[in-house]
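Practice record 12: protein with pyridoxal-5'-phosphate.
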Amino acid sequence: MSTKFETQAIRNQTERSQFSEHSTPMYVTSSFVFNDAEDMRASFAEEKEKNLYSRFSNPNTTEFVDKIVAMEGAEAGYAFATGMAAIFSTFGALLNAGDHIVSCRSVFGSTHSLFTKYLPKWNIETSYFKVNEIDKIESLIQSNTKILYAESPTNPAVDILNLELLGKIAKKYNLLLVIDNCFATPYLQNPINFGSDLVIHSATKLIDGQGRVLGGVVVGKADLIREIYLFSRNTGPAMSPFNAWVLSKSLETLAVRVDKHCENALKVAEFLEKNQHVNSVKYPFLKSHPQYKIAKKQMKLGGNIVAFEIKEGLKAGKSFLNAIKMCSLSANLGDTRTIVTHPASTTHSKLSELDRLEVGITDGLVRVSVGLENVDDIIEDLNQALN
Ligand SMILES: Cc1ncc(COP(=O)(O)O)c(C=O)c1O
């Protein structure tokens, strides 16, 4: 079969049932039946590839995972109820008490909470490097370091990490490189090509793309996925068949949707760069982005998230949100609907100013998840709110 991205996304499909359906149906069933005792024994012994119970596998989740595996160039994968379930299960399956993680400081808030609040319960500590301090990573590595972890682009400041460099460091020190590829999607960036062992997605974002369901997925090396699968089979964070069905359908249109998201986002970024109320704009495919060259090398397009620094900080950020008419004020991103957030007064308001600045969240930082509305309407709304 063709290995082209769009074709895989559509034609990589569960085997047809006796009803000869064209589009994969929903297999909403908690368990599966066996022909006889021997069939059941052999299936449980994994001598046969058969679905047993939907916490382990289900035709809909398998179809969704198979697509992401193909898109990321991975060997295997497993689907989760949420992106956070995927991240936690990866650590839970692969780390032992006393292991150590080296992570970029700019990671999603709940991932940061895992590092600071929960993993220390098992004596698993994390050392951080800043986005512009990749050269410090080697000095943070200890004899018990097992995982090198990062996101690129980062949430919410849209910084870019050099994946090839991370891949080289991970290889040199025999660490597992785990990349949260949520902002880029498998369409724009494939971290495995740069040496990543595992790639994680919150499917809740652009993979669903329509703000409907939660989901997560981890793909990568087969032996690591096997560990993650066994952990998850017992602990139960599996994706529901319904969500897998929705998300697999979403993947059929991922390429066209993301192309348009990126086209709109670049136009929004260019508009903001010229606006008198804006201090600076960060978008990976703007020449002014500090890691523009790296972004160009590792990403197909710049993604749908634009971050900008509004003049007069906190107060202006809040009044900008209040003046927005069409765009949504919402915690999600990667939706058809454009979403604006002001992290300093909302999602990151509990952090001290110093902690916020460490991860690039200034008082005036506004994050725009550019949607699929007509871009003129998006720009008009942002423009009137800035004015
Ligand atoms: C970069 C990143 N990783 C992980 C997550 C967590 O995903 P979920 O909300 O599906 O648990 C998010 C959610 O916003 C995210 O932005």
